[in-house]
Design brief:
The protein has 402 residues and is an alpha/beta fold. The protein is built from 15 helices and twelve strands. The radius of gyration is 21 Å and the shape is globular.
Length: 402
């Protein structure tokens, strides 16, 4: 008897695709060597014919902008308005349509990749995506080169984020917010808390555990629990050891939900009591519905990541997008956003501005982590294109319940 389809739209789509293709995890894990590389490149490479040409910029005559972002990722008032964005619109005259369109990097990419390959407008002039996905966009030529002259506040960028491996000098992307992946729990139901990934797999939590559909966070935390340095030169065997544990916990029903940002709904409705989650999200839902959840970096360590602005190749409003990026790199504006979203701001000077709003903000380790906090987290190392697709395919095979 076939299993019912999951509620999460990303996972539902993958299940339907796999059933049509009769995909099994064994067949996916059995692909090795050159065959794995060929599958990886075929799965993600753009169509032949070179990189697409960027659209002509019409910003001087068309003062409009569409910004696609993740949920709970911009300051919001009680009426659902975005105060900092409203001020930008008033000051710049650029009519900005802010859309909460990103729930998961993979699902967003799946929606826009065909248009990107053709250099077409994807319905967004500015998008915020995670490091590894931004790396893919840049590699395929799906971004437009930034004109730093239009972003003088780029001088406020944290120097540690300037020369990252996939975009040295930040000519194609600019950090929006950073954060940690760790674990959280319902304090009313679990007063003793959860301090390690292994504790998520205790029998009393069977069927009440959630994890993220971001492979680097879910598998990354399991690898850290197993003693693997995810920022170092780990092996395929170490990745597969974590994947096997994950697979077992999915198959035995310990893990109930595997989702993108919609995992928050499962925390709020009580389906999930403990989860692998993103740091700032827990502060937001606590502010909305009472102080019911606690976030910690696991004893074995958490992951550290950044989401980044990029201008898609088909956008005709590049200069408008650069003006918005410059606005949000003003330390006072960055501090206001950080105070609401509770993620790590990349803007130097924002800490001092945050202290003017509330002195306690400057000590918030989720926004302004010190060296001790940063020593507890690791960045999942950049994968080769072949590794990225091979690992992601193996991870998705588990999501499919194969």
């Amino acid at each position: 008897m076939p299993r019912s389809l999951p509620e999460d739209p990303l996972i539902r789509g993958l299940v339907q695709q796999a059933r049509r293709a009769q995909l099994t995890r064994r067949s996916m894990l059995g692909v090795t060597g050159g065959a794995a590389a060929a599958l990886a490149l075929a799965a993600c490479a753009p169509a032949a014919g070179g990189k697409p040409n960027p659209a002509t910029d019409t910003s001087d005559s068309d003062k409009s902008l569409i910004w696609a972002n993740w949920p709970a990722y911009l300051d919001e008032d009680d009426n659902g308005n975005y105060p900092t964005l409203q001020r930008f619109i008033e000051q710049s005259g650029i009519q900005t349509d802010y859309r909460v369109d990103v729930d998961d990097n993979n699902s967003y990419y799946a929606k826009v990749k065909d248009q990107l390959a053709l250099g077409q407008d994807i319905g967004a002039d500015l998008v915020c995506l995670t490091d590894w996905m931004v790396s893919r966009f840049i590699r395929f030529g799906y971004t437009q080169e930034l004109d730093h002259a239009n972003i003088p506040n780029i001088a406020n960028l944290n120097p540690d984020l300037l020369n990252i491996d996939y975009d040295k000098g930040r000519h194609q992307s600019l950090p929006w917010q950073g954060g940690f992946a760790g674990i959280c729990w319902n304090k009313e139901e679990l007063p003793d808390g959860v301090r390690s990934v292994n504790e998520l797999f205790n029998p009393e939590l069977a069927g009440r555990v959630g994890v993220l559909s971001e492979m680097r966070d879910t598998i990354g935390l399991i690898m850290l629990e197993q003693g693997t340095d995810i920022s170092g030169d780990f092996t395929d065997a170490q990745f597969e050891a974590a994947l096997e544990l994950f697979d077992n916990q999915v198959k035995n029903g310990q893990i109930r939900n595997i989702k993108g940002n919609s995992y928050l709904e499962d925390l709020q409705n009580g389906d999930t009591l403990a989860a692998i989650c993103w740091s700032g999200d827990i502060t937001v839902i606590n502010a909305e519905a009472g102080d019911k959840w606690e976030f910690v970096i696991p004893d074995a360590g958490g992951t550290l990541w950044n989401d980044n602005f990029l201008i898609p190749v088909g956008s005709a409003h590049k200069k408008n997008a650069e003006e918005l990026m410059n606005y949000y790199y003003d330390p006072a504006v960055a501090a206001e956003v950080a105070a609401w979203v509770n993620y790590i701001t990349p803007v130097v000077g924002a800490k001092e501005e945050a202290a003017k709003i509330d002195p306690e903000l400057a000590d918030n380790q989720l926004i302004f982590p010190d060296e001790e906090t940063l020593s507890q987290v690791k960045v999942f190392r950049t994968l080769t294109p072949a590794q990225e697709q091979a690992y992601q395919q193996q991870f998705q095979a588990v999501l499919l319940g194969a």
